[in-house]
Specification:
It is a single chain. The protein has 288 residues and is α/β, with parallel strands linked by helices. The protein has eight helices and seven strands. Helix 1 runs parallel beside helix 2. Strand 4, helix 4 and strand 5 form a beta-alpha-beta unit. The relative contact order is 0.18. The chain has one domain: NAD(P)-binding Rossmann-like Domain (Rossmann fold, 3-Layer(aba) Sandwich). Strands 3-2-1-4-5-6-7 form a seven-stranded parallel β-sheet, sandwiched between helices. The longest helix is centred in the middle third of the chain and has 22 residues. GO terms for molecular function: oxidoreductase activity, acting on CH-OH group of donors.
């Protein structure tokens, strides 16, 4: 896999025609493999990751695998990326289950959780991560079909997957949701996307309160500009070449720089945090 320079401020112009995008076509490739294996924090556990085939999801899958967790990944249709992630995960000595389907569909969400439990016999961590975004120059250009797809994919799936997962999650388990910096500062060209990410913040805070007595923690991560396939699949070549240059650190982040947030939230080190959000965003102050 081609490695990129995490200190690079800009990427070359590029675009992809379909979302969520194909990681193998990105130049340079996002960094997903992290540092060499350290003390394992998730030995024997099982983690389900929606959108785990590429980007942040892949980086989380690989990091969790290094720490001993078996991995179940749901993905839309990016089979080549999913298979590449499976190889990276299984190289860590754990098992990886790939589940193809659309998380906007409640039936798929529930069946995919069941498949993971059938395969591994348990579920310890649910990571609601997959999302879509469709930039529009004017608010009135957001169609009802776009609005419906964005909400079904980005927030309805959190309800569907979490509801089914709660049939299997035990005391000490964890639900982690991917929100966004846009939930806190807004986005003029991603109004529907930012709205779903704001809903996810409220979902995290509400579900954490509902599950506190059951000792199941619910937290979230709100990334800023991260170099994932969703970027060239969403923006123009020029916008991609400038992506991330407007944050204090003057660059986009790499998926492997975000993944440790999820590891912390899933591990026993986080036993006293629930209803909280971590902010790997290149230095934006969002007071969230």
């Amino acid at each position: 896999m081609q490695k990129s320079n995490p200190k690079r401020a800009q990427r070359p112009p590029q675009a992809q025609k379909k979302q969520p995008g194909i990681e193998s076509k990105m130049i340079p490739q996002p960094q997903s493999e992290g540092s060499p294996q350290m003390e394992q924090k998730l030995i024997g556990k099982v983690t389900y990751i929606s959108g785990g085939d590429s980007g942040i999801g892949r980086a989380v899958a690989v990091l969790f695998a290094k720490h001993g967790s078996n991995i179940a990944i749901s993905y839309l249709n990016e089979t080549s990326d999913a298979e590449a992630t499976r190889v990276l995960v299984e190289e860590c000595g754990v098992k990886c289950l790939l589940i193809k389907g659309n998380i906007a569909d409640e039936r798929f969400c529930k069946s995919s959780i069941k498949q993971a439990v059938k395969k591994f016999g348990r579920l310890d961590v649910l990571i609601n991560n997959a999302a879509v975004q469709y930039p529009q120059k004017k608010p009135e250009l957001i169609s009802s079909s776009q609005l419906e797809e964005t909400f079904k994919t980005n927030i309805f799936s959190h309800f569907y997957l979490s509801s089914e997962a709660l049939n299997y999650l035990k005391e000490g388990s964890s639900i982690i949701c991917t929100t966004s910096v846009t939930a806190y500062r807004g986005s003029a060209h991603l109004i529907d996307y930012a709205s779903t990410k704001g809903a996810i913040v409220a979902f995290i805070r509400s579900l954490s309160a509902a599950l506190a007595d059951r000792k199941i923690r619910v937290n979230g991560v709100a990334p800023g500009p991260i170099w994932t396939p969703l970027i060239p699949a969403s923006f123009t070549k020029k916008e991609v070449s400038e992506f991330g240059s407007d944050v204090p650190l003057k660059r986009a982040g790499e998926p492997e720089e975000v993944a440790p947030c999820y590891l912390f939230l899933a591990s026993d080190e986080n036993s006293y945090m629930t209803g909280q959000i971590l902010h790997p965003n290149g230095g934006e102050i969002v007071n969230g």
